[in-house]
Structure prediction request, 356 residues.
Amino acid sequence: MRVGNAADLAVIMMDVGDASQAQAVDAFVAVHALGTPFHRTAWLRAITAATGHRALLLAAVAPSGDIKGLLPLHHVKSRLFGEALVSTGFAVDGGLLVADDRALAPLAAAAQQLAQDKGGVSVELRGGPAPGGDWRRRDDQYVGFVRPLAADDEAELLAVPRKHRAELRKALANPALSIEVGRTDRLLRDHYHVYATSVRNLGTPVFPAKLFKSVLQHFGKDADLMVVRDGDRPVSAVLSLYHQGRVMPYWGGGVADARRLRSNELMYYRLMGHGRMRGMSRFDFGRSKLGSGQAAWKKSFGFDPAPRVYHIWSADGAVRDVNPASAKYQRRIDLWKRLPLPVANLLGPMISRGLG
Prediction:
C-alpha cells in the first residue's frame, strides 16, 4: 500500500505478518545505530497479539527496493484515554528511524495523513529525530539512563557510588537471597506476581499478563526473566530485552519487603553480569519521570540522566493525557494503592490496555 512519496522515495505500508517484509524491516533495524527493540517487528506483533492494538508500519523505500526509513506505529484505542497513533505502543523509545534524512519529512507526513484518516487522532513519537514542521517537542517529562558495562563483577561493583555500593554489599552477603534467570512458566508467574504488587503499591494499573508472555514468545532468546527469591518467596523480578549490545531491564519491580532486603539492588547488579556474559556492552536502565524517586535511585546506582525527547502532533492541538503524574489522576492513584491485590489485578489490565 503506497501512502506517499517524496522525490525518489515512496512511503508504503509494510505488512508485519509477511515473512519477507518483516525480515527486510528487521535487517534494517539490526544494522541501524539508533535501532531499538521497539522498532522490531517482534515488538509490533507482540503488542498487537496481547492488546489488540493494530500495528501500522510505514517505510520509505528507494526505487531499488531498499528501505531508507521506518516509522512503526500502533493505533491505540481507549474509552478512558482516547485514541492515538503511537510509536510504539507500550514502548519508551521508538520514533522515526532513517538512513537517509530525505525520508524524515515524507514519513512524518504519512503519519499525519494516517491520523487524519483515523478520525483526526494525535500522533506520539517516543524518541527518534525531530520530524520538522508543526510537531511539538517534549523533553521535560522523562529522562533515560545508559552507561557501559564494566569489565567484570568487581569493576561493576566499584562503578556503583560508595553509599549505594554499601547497600548492594548487604544484599550480596545475604545467603537467603537467590537468583534465577530463564523463560519458564514458573518464572513468568513469579514475575507477574511481583510486578503486579509493585505497580499496585505505586498506584498504577498493571498490564495484562499476556503482554509479558507475548513479548517473551515473540522475542525468543532476545528476552528473558530474572527473579530474586528470599528463600522460596519471589521478592524482585524483571523482564529484560537484549538488542544491539544493550541489556535493557524493561518491566521490573519488587514487593514491599524488597527495600529492606535490597533485592532490587542485587537483581540489577546480577543482571549487569548476566548481560556481560551474553556479550552485551551497555546497560540501558530505561526511562523515569524527571524529578522522581526512581530517577534519583538510578542516579545513585551510577547512571547519569539524559532527557528523553518525544514529538507529538495533532490537527487540532489536542493530545491524550496518559501521564500518571498529571494532577487529575492523583486522587485515583491514591485510591488504587489501597485496593486489594486480586481486585487491582482484575481491573488493572482493562484500564492499562488503553495507555499504550
About this structure: Residues 98 and 239 are 28 Å apart (CA to CA). The radius of gyration is 20 Å.
